[in-house]
Design brief:
This protein has 918 residues and is an alpha/beta fold. The protein contains 37 helices and 26 strands. It is 47% helix and 12% strand. The chain is globular and about 95 Å long.
Length: 918
């Protein structure tokens, strides 16, 4: 039996303990007097003991059933125990307990698993009532607990849209552990009898308490405040839940308290029917999908189609003699729901007033924004919409240099003056990390010294990066606002949409940080702290400001935008994305321009199936996002542990840890790795709360240079072609495995099997290799792991595209469009004529974006001076494609004449602008 330190989550532990109990009880029932029976009995006793601490937080099978099983075991009824445990384990695995009552008696064998989830059709499962659990928090005895449960059971009605069971816990701490442990819980009833401390002492469970935070602040509370405080604490970790407070305190006492997620307060009454109806109503509010429901209803209507979509209602397919296979593959419903109509119960994405508008409002609630907008052509378009809505020609924008190419093109469209920010390099793995806060502050202070702070409009960063580096979003925003109090933030969270629904991850999302900051700026404690810091920093130089954690002024404006690829990390059809807005000046300053930008980039014929999938995807994460994200993290952690501990895998592969991917100066917690073979699992909550950068645990970067294959070859020739394993990103010597909410433990097991097979084949290959073959292998490994070119920083914009020498911003738009005239451009060969140009002392200036894939970020942008370091990097690349570079011609650059003429044009424009300013 594995040690508890081997488990990252209590859910994994619970699942494996039940499986172990099934195997052990089954073996004992087959041979109760056998030689190993005594050992089996001891093992089962240990399993019952460990499960007893966990089962109290779940309604199925429930402590009453669990205690009955233990008594049967103590009475040596091994056959009955084995039968019941097998039923329970199967029900937990298949989810059958959600659909029906699970009989545990042996004489109910004729009711065998004919309705089990695993063999039910999709249609049958869709018709079943969704199941959830309600946690009641009250310190009651066994008789009172049965009374509470029976009263809730008696309230059930056939017409109820959902089915739920209740679980009772006694204390505030147990409730916090329970909601973080039991993903079935959708509502909490907090009664006045609860106590403070849990009687459970189990590290893997008490670890969950740390994630709730604020535990140390409640010890001074009086018992009458435990209920309201519990509602507040649950709001911090699982804000999607509903709480109902039963209290005997006066209305006046309750009115002034922060009740967190409490939907309703019940005074001095045991109105179980009203509680029951409120619980169902609360879940229904999250379950509703306005647009998906409207589209389903529309598809049922008999409709005459006289608009420009032959595929609508499937007419062009059903009447065809040649494309019937398409109709058979997709089924009829997708075509019945295909239309360009915006009436008949539907809505317009461009001017929503009906179900689309309501669906976007529900998404705003789910993701913690003030406004949310759907997009049907990906986050690339979302990025351009936000930039165009907020940035005017000539505005200065600070941009993460290795961000997604859509941002660079957005700068071109907006006419922004771009200051590129360099991320810290990870030369050993040919990838970039993220932009240190010190670098951002340094650039802002330079712009301030040059008198340009009024022109600085936006900071644009990727959170989290493709490789999983996550910013301390709240800290970045507060320190930047201390320098520029009205700075706009655009956080590209294309790969981070799931983060809202995990307590650890949520604190580093843009919307959560914006809401926290808005609340904190209004507080008296912040005003006092700001005034004290201002007095302390009076006359401070830039170095002091760079070394100080700056506080924003209380009147700073919180202006935050996040773009998310819902289709990348949550359930949505491809290109389904969202824009989340939390901007205090949106209504007064941005709304009109945002609408125009949205109209500019959004199709007048958006795909309704994508919109419906966004609506349903939002429903899913509000009701089971917590569970799915938890399982996603568990899958990635299991992968880490398996590779870290497997003796053969360690020879050729290495899982990159936080210590490998984040320099020490950015890890204040000192955490090196999420898993250590000797120490077990680290609690990541502390580093996620404090460190400047953290590593997203759901991404596993595997160094594969030890195999002698570069990342691209390993991805294509080995994983894809040989084993059918798909991945997105590689670097020169790494591959990235991304788990998602659909990743299963079986998928992880298959990957580990594949890696072991690859390692075994390499072992055999080297065992039979000649001396020269072995030397060749060692040389390839050294080339991949040690002889790596340094990653180049952004060089500079050519003077023809700059305003002055004081700061580094450049006019990327002018450079982009200057290249449209072929007379302004020439081609230089990478290993020939470009060297002569550099040796002559002339500036060589790129005329277009040069984007190697992988890694997929521009190493050159229009108007950028080509440096020797960039050329060395390009020559060392062994990737399959470099967008913007032509093998037959070389690198496209500006001619001397074009640069000279552009310099004159730029000077004249600057002179005119200065005169206007005067």
């Amino acid at each position: 039996m594995q040690s508890m330190s081997d488990y990252y989550s209590a859910i994994q532990l619970r699942s494996d303990r039940w499986s172990a109990l099934r195997e052990a009880s089954s073996a004992l029932s087959r041979d109760p007097q056998g030689a190993r029976s005594e050992a089996q009995v001891k093992k089962i006793e240990g399993l019952f003991e460990s499960l007893a601490l966990i089962e109290a937080y779940w309604a199925f099978p429930g402590m009453q059933v669990f205690d009955h099983l233990r008594r049967q075991f103590e009475h040596k009824n091994y056959y009955d125990v084995a039968f019941a445990v097998q039923r329970i384990t199967r029900a937990l695995t298949t989810g059958a307990y959600r659909r029906r009552h699970i009989p545990l008696e042996r004489d109910s064998a004729d009711a065998e698993e004919h309705e089990d989830e695993v063999i039910q059709s999709v249609e049958a499962r869709a018709l079943a009532k969704p199941y959830f659990e309600v946690m009641i928090v009250d310190d009651v005895n066994e008789h009172q607990e049965r009374w509470l449960k029976s009263n809730f059971s008696r309230m059930r009605r056939i017409e109820d849209p959902f089915h739920y069971e209740t679980v009772v816990v006694p204390s505030l701490q147990d409730a916090l552990i329970g909601v973080l442990f039991n993903h079935n819980i959708q509502a909490i009833v907090v009664r006045p009898g609860l106590i403070m401390e849990s009687k459970v002492e189990l590290p893997i469970l008490t670890r969950y308490l740390d994630r709730a935070g604020g535990i140390d602040t409640i010890e001074a509370l009086s018992p009458e405040d435990y209920g309201p405080e519990l509602c507040r604490l649950i709001a911090k970790v699982r804000p999607e839940l509903d709480a109902y407070l039963v209290t005997d305190r006066s209305v006046e006492d309750i009115a002034g308290l922060d009740l967190g997620i409490c939907r309703r307060v019940f005074y001095n009454q045991e109105d179980f029917l009203e509680l029951h109806l409120n619980i169902l109503r609360g879940v229904q509010a999250r379950y509703k999908t306005p647009f998906f429901t409207a589209l389903v209803e529309y598809s049922k209507q008999p409709t005459g189609v006289f608009h420009a979509m032959p595929i609508s209602r499937g007419k062009s397919i059903s009447r065809s003699h040649w494309i019937q296979d398409m109709g058979a593959f997709y089924g009829p419903n997708i075509f019945l729901a295909e239309t360009s109509a915006t009436s008949g119960g539907l809505d317009s994405l461009l001017e929503p007033h009906g179900p689309i508008k309501e669906a976007q409002e529900l998404a705003s609630r789910a993701f913690g924004s003030k406004q949310t907008y759907f997009a049907t052509n990906g986050t690339s378009t979302c990025n351009k919409i936000v930039v165009q809505a907020l940035v005017r020609p000539g505005d200065i924008v600070l941009v993460d240099r290795d961000c997604h190419k859509s941002h660079h093109y957005g700068m071109v469209l907006a006419g922004a003056q771009v200051v590129y920010l360099d991320s810290y390099p990870l030369n050993e793995y040919s990838m970039y990390g993220a932009v240190p806060l010190r670098e951002i502050k340094h650039q802002l202070l330079k712009l301030k010294a040059a008198g340009k702070l009024d022109r600085v409009r936006m900071l644009l960063l990727t959170n989290c990066t493709f490789d999983g580096i996550v910013y301390n979003v709240e800290r970045v925003m507060e320190e930047c606002l201390a320098i520029k109090p009205d700075l706009v933030f655009l956080w590209d969270e294309a790969w981070f949409g799931f983060a809202r629904f995990g307590p650890t991850y949520r604190q580093r999302t843009a919307m959560n940080a914006a809401n926290n900051l808005r609340e904190r700026l209004r507080s008296d404690s912040h005003i006092a702290a700001y005034d004290a810091q201002q007095a302390e920093l009076a006359g401070a130089d830039d170095e002091t400001l760079l070394n100080t954690r700056l506080l924003p002024p209380p009147d700073a404006r919180v202006r935050t935008y996040a773009t998310q690829s819902t289709h990348k990390t949550l359930t949505s059809l491809r290109q389904g994305s969202m824009i989340h807005v939390n901007d205090q000046d949106f209504k007064g300053e941005v709304e009109a321009s945002f609408h125009e930008a949205y109209m500019t980039h959004t199709s007048t014929s958006p795909n309704y199936q994508i919109i419906a999938s966004l609506d349903v995807g939002r429903r899913q994460v509000e009701l089971e996002g917590f569970e799915f994200v938890q399982r996603q993290v568990e899958a990635a952690m299991s992968m880490r542990r398996a590779i870290h501990t497997h003796p053969l895998l360690k020879k050729y592969f290495k899982v990159l840890t936080a210590g490998d991917m984040i320099p020490e100066e950015h890890r204040e917690s000192g955490l090196q790795s999420y898993y250590d073979p000797d120490q077990g699992w680290a609690d990541i909550w502390d580093c996620w709360e404090k460190d400047e950068f953290v590593l997203d645990a759901t991404r596993v970067t595997l160094a594969v240079g030890g195999t002698g294959w570069d990342g691209d070859t390993f991805k294509t020739d080995i994983l894809m072609d040989k084993y059918g394993i798909q991945i997105n990103k590689t670097s020169r010597n790494t591959v990235l495995f991304m788990t998602n909410i659909g990743t299963t433990r079986s998928s992880v097991a298959y990957l580990i099997e594949v890696l072991v097979e690859i390692a075994k084949e390499l072992d055999e290959l080297l065992d039979d290799a000649s001396i020269m073959e072995r030397r060749g292998f060692e040389k390839r490994v050294a080339n991949l792991m040690h002889d790596l070119p340094p990653l180049p920083d952004f060089s500079r914009f050519h003077d023809a595209f700059r305003t002055d020498d004081m700061t580094s911003e450049g006019d990327i738009r002018s450079a982009f469009f200057l290249s449209y005239d072929e007379k302004n451009c020439d081609y230089l060969e990478l290993d020939g004529s470009i060297n002569d140009a550099l040796d002559s002392g002339d500036d060589v200036v790129s005329a277009q974006f040069i984007i190697p894939y992988p890694p997929g970020f521009p190493i050159l942008v229009p108007g950028q001076v080509v440096s020797k370091e960039i050329l060395a990097f390009m020559r060392a690349l062994d990737v399959s494609e470099i967008h913007g570079y032509r093998d037959d011609l070389g690198l496209r650059v500006f001619t001397k004449k074009a640069l000279k003429q552009q310099a004159k044009t730029n000077a004249a424009r600057l002179k005119l602008n200065n005169e206007r300013h005067k």
